[in-house]
Backbone:
């Protein structure tokens, strides 16, 4: 199956065009910075940093993170096709994909908590600046695991080229 | 001058060690990638809010992210300097690297513009009002330059000499 993917016309284009592969890599790193950047700032907030920002204020930003994710899903799939057989047998690649899937699942859980228990209610929004938001231990734990998963995705992603 | 500097740098024992220690380069790359995520991640939040988007974010509160932006920059300055010392002849003549360095200087000047024109007065801004043109200019200049810095950096292995 992966062999057939690798010999598809789009995979051949990525592999053989002089600029397709480098340009996809360049786009992939911008998407990475958007996804990991926004999610790590959100996770740091949930872990108690940036008390001047309401945790739920990160909710609209997750749309930006999703844009980054879609950019990287597309560029990532195109990069994958060019060496599909090599990638499916590459341990760091598989770990990277596992970390991303887990990170996105946790992003969904965090998003629902930002809408629920941590939502901005209009009564407290006025004094939102210095209010002490109660972030539950389980939410903090999820944020920490999420942060570590995105770091792991970067570590594993970079090691694809070496292992 | 740059060439003779690069040549003499390449002969230092630090340069030899970086290039010959096989596990060091990937570790530096990993740190560089984490650093750029912190840098751009923090700036996306700060700059988009400064340009008037995502108004649920407390304008002044977003500046609490700045230490992470600086940590990201410091990590990348250190790892980036080690890349350069490890292989100076390759980087100094690379057009991707050269454009990247010019853009980082522009981003630095833009940051100075922020500290000169915006930081002293931002506390007095009406958070619901449309931000002044200078704020939008600094915010978008920051996001665009850093995005192109990332693009240029990733293209360094694939582009030729400048």
Residues:
């Amino acid at each position: 199956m992966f062999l057939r993917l690798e010999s598809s016309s789009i995979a051949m284009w990525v592999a053989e065009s002089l600029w397709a592969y480098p340009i996809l890599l360049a786009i992939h790193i911008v998407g990475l910075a958007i996804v990991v950047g926004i999610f790590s700032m959100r996770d740091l907030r949930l872990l108690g940093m940036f008390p001047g920002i309401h945790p739920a204020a990160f909710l609209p930003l997750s749309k930006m993170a999703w844009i980054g994710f879609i950019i990287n899903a597309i560029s990532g799939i195109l990069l994958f096709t060019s060496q599909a057989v090599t990638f499916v047998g590459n341990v760091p690649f598989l770990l990277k994909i596992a970390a991303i899937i887990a990170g996105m699942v946790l992003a969904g859980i965090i998003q629902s908590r930002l809408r629920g228990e941590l939502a901005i209610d209009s009564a407290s929004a006025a004094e939102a600046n210095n209010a002490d938001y109660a972030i539950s231990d389980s939410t903090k734990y999820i944020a920490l695991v999420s942060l570590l998963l995105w770091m792991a995705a970067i570590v594993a992603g970079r090691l694809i080229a070496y292992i | 001058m740059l060439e003779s500097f690069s040549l003499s740098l390449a002969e230092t024992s630090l340069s030899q060690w970086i290039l010959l220690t096989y596990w060091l380069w990937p570790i530096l790359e990993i740190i560089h990638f984490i650093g750029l995520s912190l840098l751009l991640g923090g700036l996306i939040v700060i700059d988009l809010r400064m340009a008037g988007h995502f108004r649920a974010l407390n304008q002044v509160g977003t500046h609490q992210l700045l230490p992470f932006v600086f940590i990201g920059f410091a990590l990348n300055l250190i790892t980036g300097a080690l890349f350069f010392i490890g292989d100076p002849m390759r980087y100094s003549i690379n057009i991707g690297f050269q454009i990247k360095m010019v853009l980082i200087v522009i981003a630095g000047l833009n940051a100075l513009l922020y500290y000169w024109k915006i930081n002293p007065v931002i506390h007095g801004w009406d958070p619901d009002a449309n931000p002044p043109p200078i704020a939008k200019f600094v915010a978008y200049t920051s996001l665009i330059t850093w995005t192109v810095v990332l693009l240029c950096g990733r293209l360094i292995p694939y582009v030729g000499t400048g």
The helical segments of chain A are 2-6, 9-16, 20-46, 61-82, 84-88, 91-115, 122-125, 137-159. Residues 28 and 72 of chain A are 5 Å apart (CA to CA). Chain A touches chain B at residues 21-23, 25-30, 32-34, 36-41, 44, 49-54, 56-61, 64, 120, 128-129, 150-151, 154-155, 157-159, 161-162 (CB under 8 Å).
